[in-house]
Amino acid sequence: MSDPDSNLDAIYRNLHRNPELSFQEHRTAALVETELRGLGYDVLTGIGGTGVVGILRNGAGPTVMVRADMDALPVQERTGLDYASDTRGTDQEGRELPVMHACGHDMHVTCLIGAARRLASETDSWNGTLEVLFQPAEELGTGATAMVNDGLFDRIPRPEIVLGQHVSPLPAGVVALQPGPAFAAADGIRIVLYGQGGHGSRPETTIDPIVMAAGTVLRLHTIVSRETAANATLVLTIGSLHAGTKNNIIPDSAEILISLRSFDPSVREAAITSIRRIVRGESMTAGAPREATIDVYESFPSVTNDLDAARRTSSVFKDYFGEQNVIEPGAVTGSEDVGILASAAGARCCFWLLGGSNPALFATARSVTDIIETVARQPSNHAPNYAPVIQPTLDTGVEALVIAAREWLGPEINPLPSSSISRDQKDVNRILVVETEAVPLGEDSRRAGP
């Protein structure tokens, strides 16, 4: 078999240049299918729309699933990279939009292809059944559910553990694995406020939904600052406010889209109750002709890593990468739907963050505060100028998936071949072990996922 690490850089650049929106990952799925068939995997396609699963059976032993997501975002890329995307696509509402891999799913796919190659080439080092799953539509929070509802676990063996990773603005060469609650639950909420339209020169004849929306936005932000306890975690972000078509027309409606992140179900329920109260109150105060609509249109649960699985996986990471390069980041407010796969299978979940920022940027860090400040200065996931450095991110990501999969596929870990990851790059990140407590690494470091 040829070098399993060959041309991975080229695959990553190809995927980055050709992103696809959720449930439209046809080109990516075809590339993955070709790779897996060439490696001897049994391949299932079209699960949940565009999902792909490769199965490699290697004697008696555990069944382990390793998962990557494939979809991109409606963002205009501004990285300036020579492999930047200029792709445009049409979303589920029929809007033509720019498309970019602004969350790093192209890196996830490439890393899993690399791991699938490596594990296929080293079957003498593990036993059991390996499942590599490439999932659509993580950004909508519905891709995992779509695959499950399409009979995923009627078609493949149920795994004993689901493994995976998400790239982040941490230094490349670092992996961050949090036992227990690791990623927040997420809700997407759509609010439509109704007014009475008219001419901009005669606002007294109208009920202006834009003014109504402005008041609503300001009041909604008090849910976190004035209604939520300081020791509770809640993030409320208004990512979209749309109203009107022309400067001299007062429209008859305004739409607000909210992203809500939480860990505690009681905090979530209280926040949604407050959103309903505030929206209806603003609407009533404005004398709206009809009640506002409030739709929780997407929801997925928090990701909770199995405690024993996280500790066991973290231990083998530390053996390979060095303790200074394996950290507990604390629970992060980014969200993921990987836990749905584990729950549906009745399996453990172990999901970690993969550093993707240039390690040289952290060379002068001398404290946890320095690290937090450096992370905060990096572009975050979903930003138009976000892109992980290809190396050592890619090599680290492949190694992490291989190490974790082999730990769970076999009773022992055989020595891995020397990685192309530079050890002096790892030394750059030595400061990351200053404290053992789980310290949230700043808002930007937490923005992995949808």
From TrEMBL:
Domain Peptidase M20 dimerisation, first and last residues per copy: 188-280
Top-level taxon of origin: Bacteria
InterPro entries: Amidohydrolase (IPR017439), Bact_exopeptidase_dim_dom (IPR036264), Peptidase_M20 (IPR002933), Peptidase_M20_dimer (IPR011650)
Pfam families: M20_dimer, Peptidase_M20
PANTHER family with a match to the protein in the record: METALLOPEPTIDASE, PUTATIVE (AFU_ORTHOLOGUE AFUA_6G09600)-RELATED, PEPTIDASE M20 FAMILY MEMBER
Protein name: Amidohydrolase
Organism field: Cryobacterium breve
